[in-house]
Amino acid sequence: MENNNRMAGGGDELTLLGAFGSAFVLRVKLALSFKGLDFEDVEEDLAKKSELLLSSNPARKQVPVLIHNGKSVCDSQVIVQYIDEVFCGTGPSLLPADPCERAVARFWAAFIDDKLLASWLQAARGKTEEEKTEGLKQTFVAVETMEAAFKTCSKGKPFFGGDSVGYLDVMLGALVAWVHAGPALYGMQLFDDAKSPLLAAWMERFGALDAVKAVLPDVDRLVEFAKMKQAH
After folding, report:
1. The pLDDT of residue 10
2. Which of 3, 149, 184, 230 has its CA 20 to 30 A from that of 46?
3. Pair 67, 180 in one domain
4. Using 50, 70 and 90 to split pLDDT, how confident is the model at 11?
5. Using N-to-C axis directions, what is the helix angle for 219-231 and 176-186, rounded to 10°?
């Protein structure tokens, strides 16, 4: 269990229950990093979940869970929106101010989880070659769709959020370390210059930000961790 004993300013106490390598946990860490918020970082052993995790998220019993002044918030998308709303005067705003643009961002966040991430996991972990092949096919359909979404959402600017990082950058950006680990683990590159040049360039820009470097795990460690899990 890692405990950094870091706390948010202004009397706010933030504790994040997470697990190494989880893209969902990384989303929350990215949001906290961009906001400049300190927190207590608690690493859960998912094979032996703590009573704190079980009582904080009784419905799903999963990480991430953000505990803010004793109250629990669950689900990565919900937590990031919560952080942006509660700490609206701190750091950059992640969700757009315009209600329609905010709805669009939430739509694409759901697409990332339901289509891109789901098919990528099927391609990587499918039980049969047919499952893996179908997963890979659907993954690249989803990547093509996200490439078009980036063009629309960014309006020719560097990030999904425009000139600065926004909600969708955090949602997709949590996958960046796994994308870099992809060739070593699964023999596949999710974003490349040929098929998805906009996303490939975005990934490099996003990964170069200080707030991102402070959070994303080392790729070699991630590869080693994933191989160890696959062996069990």
Report:
1. 62
2. 184
3. no
4. confident
5. 50
Instruction: Provide DSSP, 25-78.
Output: HHHHHHHHHHHT---EEEE--TTS--HHHHHHSTTT--S-EEEETTEEEESHHH
Residue 72 confidence (pLDDT) above 70: yes
pLDDT tier at 55, thresholds 50, 70, 90: very high
Which pair of structure tokens corresponds to residue 196? 């998805």
Q: In Å, what is the CA distance from 68 to each residue of 56, 71, 125, 154, 181? A: 11, 5, 35, 32, 32
Contact 211, 202 (CB under 8 A): no
User: Of how many residues is the chain composed?
Assistant: 232
Pick from 58, 86, 114: which residue ends a domain? 86
**215 and 111 share one domain:** yes
Query: Which residue is listed with tokens 């997709």?
Result: 172
Token pair in block for residue 97: 């101010």
Indicate the helix (H) or strand (E) that contains 229. helix 219-231
Q: Is 161 helix (H, G, I), strand (E, B) or coil?
A: coil
CATH number of residue 220's parent domain = 1.20.1050.10
Number of domains within the chain: 2
